[in-house]
Write a structure and sequence with these properties.
The strands form two sheets. Strands 5-6-1-7-8 form a five-stranded mixed β-sheet. Strand 3 and strand 4 form a beta hairpin. Among the domains are: 74 residues, no CATH class; 117 residues, no CATH class. It has 286 residues and is α+β, with helices and mostly antiparallel strands.
């Protein structure tokens, strides 16, 4: 099976303690069965500490988070005690791979990095060239349209391009939809409320932002959000995936028009939507 990946994939490098939004905070950390078996037999005081910080429910093992919802092995300096003590080989699959993802579609493996990571957003948005992809073992790259054709997916030229074309009422509708998703934290609900208030009080804010919006960045965001959900085509229709992509990119456009800081808006959207199966499903059946 050949792997497809975006050209920026190999540029991703975890910045560890320099990360402003550590993936070791605020997330449930499930432990795969093979690693759980290894932890069960891991020797010494480190093994004892690991076992004290593991819980199991319905056959699924996970780390017991601290009162601050941190991984118990995240140190104050932002580094992982497990890696420092025993090397990266000790990590469970999710810790070793995140934010990388691997999915299957039409005989290919689609690889990438999830956008809940600030570095992933940075490598996606950096540069002045369109989003391109590599096929493992081939030297040439392909654009998103060529990738879709190779996968047997046909879209019109209009469907391949992000054109916001939103007015104030559209923005409020998009915000209302996002406000109905299951919030990752209280701050998400507060943010949506603040964005609605701003949109109500500033009817022309989207038209003003459209004049200066980084069009290439939004096109890359649109294509990459769609790429991330192509695996859903076995369960949902292509139209469903397009609607999910449109709503998500429109929300990012609206939020960026209100607060600026496109990379952080993108990261925050991904954190809220892409890593919650219920929220992904909700937007796929709009």
């Amino acid at each position: 099976m050949q792997t497809i990946y975006p050209v920026f994939y190999n540029k991703f490098v975890c910045v560890a303690d320099k990360c402003r939004h550590s993936c070791c905070k605020g997330w449930e950390i499930d432990i795969d069965e093979a690693t759980a078996a290894k932890y069960k037999e891991f020797p010494g005081t480190l093994g004892e500490e690991i076992r004290r910080n593991i819980t199991s429910r319905n056959g699924i093992h996970s780390f017991v988070l601290t009162e601050e919802d941190n991984c118990p092995f995240l140190q104050k300096n932002g580094l992982c005690k497990l890696i420092l003590s025993a090397g990266e080989e000790i990590l469970c699959e999710i810790c070793n791979n995140h934010p990388r993802f691997y999915t299957l579609l039409n005989g290919y493996e689609l690889a990438g990095v999830g956008l809940s990571c600030e570095v992933a957003c940075e490598v996606l948005l950096t540069g002045d060239k369109p989003l391109t992809f590599c096929l493992e073992g081939h030297g040439e790259t392909m654009d998103f349209s060529q990738l879709l054709s190779m996968l047997g997916i046909n879209l019109s030229s209009e469907q391949l391009i992000f054109e916001p074309g939103l007015d104030q009422s559209d923005a409020l509708e998009v915000l209302d939809i996002m406000g109905r998703t299951e919030p990752i934290d209280d701050r998400w609900t507060q943010e949506i409320g603040q964005y609605k208030e701003y949109a109500n009080n500033n009817p022309d804010f989207l038209a003003d932002y459209f004049k200066t919006m980084p069009k290439l960045s939004f096109q890359k965001i649109y294509e990459y959000i769609m790429y991330r959900q192509l695996e859903k085509l076995g369960e949902y229709s292509l139209e469903d995936v397009l609607i999910y992509t449109d709503i998500s990119t429109e929300y990012i456009f609206v939020a960026a028009a209100i607060i600026g800081n496109l990379p952080e808006v993108l990261r925050r959207w991904s954190e809220q939507i892409e890593y919650c199966q219920e929220n992904v499903a909700m937007l796929l059946i709009m």
